[in-house]
Design brief:
By secondary structure, the chain is mainly beta. The chain has one helix at about 135-145, and strands at about 1-5, 10-15, 55-65, 70, 75-80, 85-90, 95-100, 100-110, 115-120, 125-135, 155-165, 170-175, 180-185, 190-195, 205-210, 220, 225-230, 245-255. Helices cover about 5% and strands about 40% of the residues.
């Protein structure tokens, strides 16, 4: 899935290379930084970071969405939150690390950009060709300009993507942490301050200025048409400063007894 979908200016945050799995434990703080790769090559594989248990190799690239394309980012850090496991990208944006098997939160970060946080379950065979993105500061600031709001870099963003039964519209959610505002994309692809998905628009409801927490509780609500929605795998993701956290929401029809 995409963490923020496509912004109205055509910028996408692609996170679809990972598969999904069963829910596991929570996540902690940001990991340290690994060594930089040689010219044109992938970054060195990170260590186990004190993890007891099996690990698997996860590798891929980090890019930015400055003009809607996936441009490699050199010197970006990919971390496994709650551990000291990390790797730094080379000139081709490549990275590789050893991640613990099971549920983990990956964070991609770079100077001058908002980082992204995604939850995935790492299988024994690991992952390859994983694409993560960082979002330049100027593009995130443009959200505030378009909506007439200020985006606080000391707080985080939670991007809820609803897997709706029918068309987007009326689905909403509440958070256990305060947020400055929320918005959704309308049928024209433009952002509008809103507490619900907009009929005919995108299926993402994005909360901006979320207070920091190691485990965010999201309570989704379905549409008035009879949907029941819940956070996929009952995940409680972290919200970190100047980071965009993906939250997957799955909806189903309410069946009368």
């Amino acid at each position: 899935m995409r963490v923020l979908g496509c912004w109205f200016w055509g910028v996408c945050l692609a996170m679809s290379a990972f598969g999904c799995g069963e829910s596991g434990g929570g996540a902690g703080g940001m990991a340290g930084t690994g060594g930089m790769a040689g010219t044109g090559g992938a970054a060195g594989t990170g260590g186990s970071g004190g993890i007891i248990g099996p690990t698997a190799t996860v590798s891929g690239t980090v890019g930015d969405g400055d003009d809607g394309s996936f441009m490699p980012v050199e010197g970006a850090t990919v971390s496994v939150l709650g551990t000291s496991i990390s790797a730094t990208t080379g000139v081709a944006g490549s990275w590789s690390l050893e991640a613990p098997e099971g549920e983990v939160y990956f964070q991609a970060s770079a100077s001058g950009s908002w980082s992204s946080i995604v939850r995935r379950v790492v299988p024994p065979e690991g992952f390859t060709d994983v694409e993560l993105e960082v979002i330049p500061d100027a593009l995130v600031a443009d959200i505030g300009l378009a909506l007439g709001r200020t985006v606080d870099e000391a707080k985080g963003i939670a991007a809820l993507e609803f897997d709706t039964v029918g068309p987007a519209g009326d689905q909403s959610a509440t958070l256990d942490e305060d947020a400055d505002f929320s918005f959704a994309f309308d049928v024209a692809g433009d952002p509008q301050v809103s507490t619900t998905l907009i009929s005919g628009g995108d299926n993402q409801l994005i909360f901006v200025g979320v207070e920091l927490t190691e485990a965010l509780t999201v309570t989704p609500e379905g549409s008035s048409g009879g949907e029941f929605c819940s956070v996929r795998f009952r995940a409680t993701p972290p919200i970190l400063a100047k980071s965009i956290t993906e939250v997957e929401v799955s909806c189903a029809l309410v069946v009368a007894p």
